[in-house]
Structures are given as structure tokens and as C-alpha cells.
Amino acid sequence: MPYVKIELTREGVTREQKQELISGITNLITDVLNKDPHLTHIVIQEVDLDDWGYAGEQVSVLREKGITADKK
Amino acid sequence: MPYVKIELTREGVTREQKQELISGITNLITDVLNKDPHLTHIVIQEVDLDDWGYAGEQVSVLREKGITADKK
Amino acid sequence: MPYVKIELTREGVTREQKQELISGITNLITDVLNKDPHLTHIVIQEVDLDDWGYAGEQVSVLREKGITADKK
Amino acid sequence: MPYVKIELTREGVTREQKQELISGITNLITDVLNKDPHLTHIVIQEVDLDDWGYAGEQVSVLREKGITADKK
Amino acid sequence: MPYVKIELTREGVTREQKQELISGITNLITDVLNKDPHLTHIVIQEVDLDDWGYAGEQVSVLREKGITADKK
Amino acid sequence: MPYVKIELTREGVTREQKQELISGITNLITDVLNKDPHLTHIVIQEVDLDDWGYAGEQVSVLREKGITADKK
């Protein structure tokens, strides 16, 4: 009985990317834990940039300063 | 001190249904655990169908296929 | 697709009380929202009294002062 | 590695108030626990008044009755 | 800035399986969303079988009846 | 009606430190949002080092490598 919650900053994640996360994590849990996928629920929650704080600052402020979360 | 979070797919839940969930769960907790209802908080979070994954698929896709969550 | 999380102070809740909460909330959701109960998951999390704060104080401190959460 | 989630009723919290919460909590955690702030993430979630239940009633109903959450 | 919470029934998940989940989900998020993995935190929470309800019954009761969550 | 959840790695946080977090955050919310502290609940959840993943690795592994979360 796995339940997974993914919280992400709201920065243009597409429907297709969400589907990739959902199928990828469900498959991973099925493979690693041998769980029936019909018992795996995944919820994605996008969070506005004013509502996510990192290192004491709103992400909206970090983005205005040109600081991204992109992989280097 | 109970706190309850209810996550639901966003599929037309009405204000009245939310009130039924809130009063029903609060009453249940008061009866079963003898808790002062003034210490019980309940939060309902509706989740878009693209953001809920079940068995590896977005619920929006399941609904397009005619698969519902209705009681049989 | 409902998922419900119940957070409670750890104060001697029995297995039977947990079962009453689980069946009561599942039945309520089935009745109010017409949801298939096989899609309803409920998680109970008991929280130590040092780890729950109310009105700025640890519940363990409130209990030492004789302040309970019992229904009046 | 702290992660903090703040759930609030949606009642006109400003961007500046959110920033005060984010910087205040991050500083508190840094001071009390000596944690690197680059490992502290804070997420604020505003909840509609129909979706928050207190003492068995929707907060929207409590507000209509003139009951507020203001500090006395 | 992704944060992921995984809730699982406590049924003998090993340290190695947890590491597989953590690295697999982090890699997936890095690949799909191009996120810096240093901004991805994952929390696993194991839940006792008395504390997880499915279809109105405690998982501990389901297991006593021989009903598992294994992949068919 | 604020509810706050703090998730921390389990690394020797004392009862006094928890009380400092609870009173500090409650006071901050009272000051910034003018909320009655009797409506503010705070839950602290300590997470075992095997159960927290950062940058794709268990924190237990990071600690074995000498990597800490201490403020520089």
C-alpha cells in the first residue's frame, strides 16, 4: 500500500512530464518492492513560487535574481 | 489534538458534501476518542485529475477510458 | 481516489478504536461521495506528546499541567 | 535536512507576510538546530475556507457567523 | 525544488530497497524535470499495519486473512 | 487556522529544542498573521537517517562519508 506525494514548484511542468513521473515511480515501486500497482497512488502538488522558501528566501525572489533549480 | 487531511480527485464535490465530511469525521473522532471537537481540524484538498496517478496512469486518462471511481 | 491522513497525539488509542476510525471514515466517504471503498486509503499517525505543539506549548507540558483534550 | 509545511486558511496573506514566515522559520531552525539553511525547504499551502473544518464546521460558515481566528 | 514523501506499510523493507527508491526517484526527477538533485529531498515513512486502512479494514486484518499487496 | 508540520532527520534533537521550535513558530505566526495561538497546531516528525534521501543518497550514507547538515 504505497502512497506517494510529490511537491514541486509550479514552473511549467507539462501533462506528459507528470505522466512520466507517475508511470516511472509506480514501475520503480512495483519492481523494488513487488507491490501490486493497483495499490499505488501518487499525488503531484504544484506550489506557487511565492509559497516555496529555500534558504530563507521565496523561490520567486531567487528566480528574479537569476538563480534556477536546473541541473548543472 | 487530531488533524485530518483528506485528499480527493477534483470531480465536482459540492460545498454541502464537504460539510458532511467535516461534520461526520469530527463527530466520529469525538465519539470514538472522546476528543473535544474544538481541537479537531480537518483540511480537504482537491487534486486535479492530471495530478493523481493510480496504477501508473493519470486519473484524467482513466476517466477518458471510461474508468470511474464510483461504488459498484 | 481518496487518501486520508489522521494525525493524533499518542495517548493510548487502541487497535479497536483505530479500526472504528478506519471503517467509519471509509463508510462516510462511500456514502457522501459514492466512492468505491477499494480506492480509499487511510493512514493513522500517532505523534508523541513532546512533538505536538498547541498554543505554543508541547502537549506533554499541557498534560503535566492537567490540561486534557477530552470532550467537556 | 528540515522540511516545513505550513497550512493556512486563504484569507489575504500577502507576499510580504509569506516572506516573513519563510525567513523567520528558517532563521529559527538555523539558530535552534544549527542547520545549514541551504537544506531547509518551507512550503506554504493556503486552503479555501470551505475546505477547512474546525469543531465540525467549515471555516466559511464560522466567518459568516462573525467568528474569526484573530488574536484576542 | 522537489520534495517527495513515500508512505508504505511496514513489512520488511530493507535499507537497500530504500536506497533503490531514493536513487531511482531522484534520477527520474532529474531526467524528466531537469532538476538539480541537490534540491531534491525524499522522505520514506513506514506505517504499522494497524495504522493503514484499505477498503475500510486495517491492513493487519487483511494480512491475517491472507490478502497481500504483492504484484500478481 | 494554521497547522505546521516540521520534518527533521533524527539526530539528537532535545525536548528543549522542540519546545523552542514550537514556541518560536507559534509566536511568529501570531505576530505576522495576527492569529489566535489557540488555533495553531505544530507537529514535529523525526525521520531516521535511512529514510531521508538527499541528492539521491540516504542521509545515513552521507553521514558515514562525513557530510553533515551543520551550518557552515
TrEMBL record, chains A, B, C, D, E, F:
Lineage: Bacteria, Pseudomonadati, Bacteroidota, Flavobacteriia, Flavobacteriales
Enzyme kind, highest EC tier: isomerase
Active site residues according to the UniProt entry: P2
Keyword Repeat: no
Entry EC number(s): 5.3.2.-
Protein name: Tautomerase
Keywords: Isomerase
Similarity comment text for this entry: Belongs to the 4-oxalocrotonate tautomerase family.
GO molecular function: isomerase activity
Domain 4-oxalocrotonate tautomerase-like: 2-60
UniProt keyword Lipid biosynthesis present: no
Annotated organism of origin: Flavobacterium saccharophilum
Domain of life assignment: Bacteria
